[in-house]
Write a structure and sequence with these properties.
Length: about 400
């Protein structure tokens, strides 16, 4: 699949923008702050409904100049080509409201967009996949779950909602001191019970889906790592479910939906009082981690800067494989987006990465200067230049001389 056309309204720094892309490799170059990342972020956002740079959607809507009205929202329209069949995907990001989506002008639920466009984004922020707290790795897994199956996107949303509601209730119980006296806490436990069952069921489904994804991801990521890492150490992954430590599984069935749900409920019962005292959810999928190892040593805290990069890239390349990157059918392969990554890599990793991305039907790369790119990439070039004076519009360029303006 590939994106042939992009139209933006009030997205980030763009008032209006129109851009045409060819399949193959396209490089967006230009000095920093011109809007290169903003462009590729818009494309990725349509397919994942999440940005690699911010957690909230409001930063995606163009901030008005002094004296201007605040735009109602941002609109991203993409024309996506899959085996010659064209679809127009539209996403409207509205300040303070739920996003709205259309496919070929028909209203759909936003998460349906990812069935039409899959993307894998590489960015300097990926170092945090290795270094940062577990939440970053959970989000990495969940983003791809959502892209791989619309039912999982739905599961994710429901799980988040129930987790939030139960968390709000716990906060209330904390305030009222419910955990402090036995009489109060048994009444409170009854109130919690409804939420427990819902949360345990959703969390169990999510844990199972994540584990399955990690099982598929591991061989792909390990293979990518062999190709990309000159150090030649073996990468392995482990999904660490906290519930497995709290209430260890006794049989295989304890890992399946029913058994896992039961263990989560048991865990919640065990920690109910502590939850009420602290006012937070302590048992469930939202506590888990994806552990990364090189030759069985944890990557976190042990790996060098270069090794950390190799692992982060391998995770992305692995996800690309799981999402369809190895498919015989080129139209099934996700669009790859490499935002400013080549400048971060040494010569060897650059060359290895360049080789590995070539099978994609479309690769979009941003770079401050073309010199940062490996020579083997035979790319279309688009220069991105901010044009304050032009006010609205423009752009185009499938040739090396095209330019993008604000
Ligand atoms: N919501 C927004 N409204 C207006 N401008 C924005 C918004 N978000 C980011 N920008 C501007 O976009 C520019 C950064 O664009 P970016 O695509 O990151 O540049 P680069 O070409 O370096 O990748 C900055 O000048 C930033 O102030
Ligand atoms: Mg950038």
């Amino acid at each position: 699949m590939y994106v042939s056309d992009v139209a933006l309204d009030d997205f980030r720094s763009y008032r209006h923008a129109l851009l045409h892309f060819e399949p193959g490799v396209t490089v967006l170059t230009g000095p920093n702050g011109q809007g290169k990342t903003n462009l590729v972020e818009a494309i990725a956002f349509v397919s994942t409904l999440s940005s690699h740079r911010v957690g909230t959607d409001s930063a995606l809507v163009r901030a008005p100049r002094p004296g201007e009205n605040v735009p109602a929202g941002a609109v991203v329209r993409l024309k996506v080509n899959k085996e010659g069949r064209e679809r127009i995907l539209e996403l409207e990001i509205i300040n303070g409201k739920a996003n709205r989506a259309k496919i070929n002008r028909t209203k759909v639920r936003p998460r349906e967009l990812s069935a039409e466009l899959k993307t894998v984004v590489f960015a300097p922020e990926d170092l945090s996949l290795v270094r940062a707290e577990p939440a970053v790795r959970r989000r990495f897994l969940d983003d791809y779950l959502g892209q791989s199956d619309i039912r999982l996107a739905q599961l994710k949303t429901e799980h988040e909602k129930v987790l939030k509601q139960r968390g709000a209730l716990l906060k209330q119980l904390k305030k009222s001191g419910a955990g402090l006296s036995p009489a109060n806490s048994s009444a409170a436990a009854a109130t919690l019970q409804v939420w427990n069952e819902q949360l345990a069921n959703l969390a169990a489904k999510l844990i199972i889906a994540r584990k399955e994804f990690v099982t598929q991801l591991e061989p792909e990521a390990a293979l990518a790592h062999q190709k990309i890492a000159p150090e030649g150490r073996d990468l392995s992954l482990r999904y660490q479910a906290k519930i497995d430590e709290l209430i260890p599984a006794q049989t295989e069935a304890d890992h399946e939906l029913e058994g896992l749900t039961a263990r989560l409920l048991q865990g919640m019962a065990q920690r109910a009082q502590e939850e009420m005292i602290r006012g937070v959810n302590l048992v469930g999928a939202h506590r888990d981690d994806l552990e990364l190892y090189l030759d069985h040593l944890p990557v976190k805290g042990y790996a060098s800067h270069g090794e950390t990069w190799s692992v982060a890239l391998s995770l992305r390349l692995g996800a690309y494989g799981v999402l369809g990157g190895n498919s015989e059918d080129i139209a099934q392969r996700p669009v790859l987006i490499l935002d400013d990554v080549f400048a971060e890599l040494d010569e060897k990793r650059r060359a290895a990465l360049a080789q590995m991305i070539l099978p994609a039907q479309q690769v979009l790369i941003t770079a401050a200067v073309p010199q940062d790119l490996p020579e083997c990439l035979n790319a279309h070039q688009i220069r991105v230049r901010r044009d304050e004076a032009a006010g609205s519009l423009i752009l185009d360029a499938t040739t090396s001389e095209g330019e993008a303006h604000e």
